[in-house]
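## retry 2 of 3
previous attempt timed out at serialization; input unchanged, resubmitting
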Amino acid sequence: MPSSIKAMRIIGIVLSAVGLQGLGTTGAGAQFRGGMPGIGGITGIGSSAPGVGSAVPGVGDAVPLPGQVVPSDAASAVTGARDAVPSSLDRPVPLNSITNSLAGPVTGAVTGATNGVLGPSGTPLGQVGAISRPAQNARPRTGSGVPPAGERRYVPREVVIGLASDMSPRALADLARRHRLTPVEAEQIALTGTTYHRWRIADGRSVSDVIRALEVDGVVRTAQPNYRFTLAQSPQALGGAPEEQKDANVQYAPGKLHLAEAHRFATGAKVLVAVIDSGIDTSHPEIADAVADSYEAIAPAGPPHFHGTGMAGAIVARSRITGSAPGARLLAIRAFSGDEEKSEATTVSILKGLDWAMAHGARVINMSFAGPYDPDIARGLAAARQKGAVLVAAAGNAGPKSPPLYPAADKNVIAVTATNSDNQLLPQANRGRYIAVAAPGVDVLVPSPGTEYRMSTGTSVAAAEVSGIAALLIELQPALTPDEVRKILQSTALDLGPKGIDEQYGAGLVDAQRAVLSLAPSTAARPAPAMLFVDRWPDMPLSWIPPRR
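## retry succeeded, writing output
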């Protein structure tokens, strides 16, 4: 008997013994038919309905022809396969659980018996029906990292490449040489299990062309531009409101959020809130006692910046003004560089900050910045949310016609827009279905480097306020998931604009008191803080920066 026919018979006998149907391709072994019921009531694949190999002559024969002797090697394989089947199958078992448990004995027997026999496509028949398992270091399937047409918000002549963390120096050097790139920086990101390399393009090739070449290289996991992000604060509002409006406006935000009432139940005590931003003045009287740790994701560090200091204060201020979570502990992360007029972060610095925050136990991560969609950051955000971090971001100040900005538009993030003292939307605020909630964000008093204060306008400060309120909820119920926090914030918000969740206000203006009471309706209120912001403002001498004109 030809060896190929003998091999076909062996395959069919083995597959029949475990209840799998013949593959049913016509050709060699066509005199055999599939469809024998499997062991324990599990029928062969497609045995009672058209399917893989049902009633079609093919490779997988179910029964040897009369008078034929089962080869000893096949009989041994059948015995081993039968032993691998659970002895009690009194109800149908998912087919994948059966095939997975039998993958070893069945695949090994079939492969050995058909060694050297090739199918019509040139593939060894020993691989037919095998359970497909990815290689240990197989490249993950991802979309292309080539930037969309017209996208220019990235560092020119640089690419960010994701590689396995155990890649050898020699392999790295070979990769750089193949693609004519110069290594600049490497950072191992434990959050995603990837080491990201920032490499420079030394010649005149475009970033897109280099990424396309990298993506067909087998050792490269991801390749993309080094995207740029900006702080989500309106530049024209940096100086604050006119002097004559100061007293009226500085008091509206705590009242709108009902912070004094909420702080009778929770202050965010001991909850770690990470602020990924520009440099924070950790010595400011409003912030100093609240800092748990700090991290510089960029070098050189530079002086403290008004934006990072203001966002930190909006969350944890506890001296002359009151943040939304004055009892929280701050993880101060500098990811943005530059001066007061222009401060930027990149893919790499934000990833470093996000990774450090998660490694140091952050429960809430505030991201008061905005930029393009970034695949690497998206992977980091998904991993952070899966580990339980509540992610909050500013919706952006690019106007109603702007496309979605990220990270706020990421599905793992709570996107926050800004309103004024009359609950009207900030005109520059982004719109979109991704907007979750709103918070005060027009002329809000926040700390500034040194011992100073200034007005802040933009979705940045609104996001920081919501981050603090998330910390209040986590203090009361530490096991809350990110989705549960989002649901509480939205279900207790004051509906603004069109009824229900809309593209302008999301679910509406956040209400800290209602959010807290939804978790602790019967909890006895704590004594009110001795000095609340709204009570002591008239007698509070502040060093205030006048508006810039």
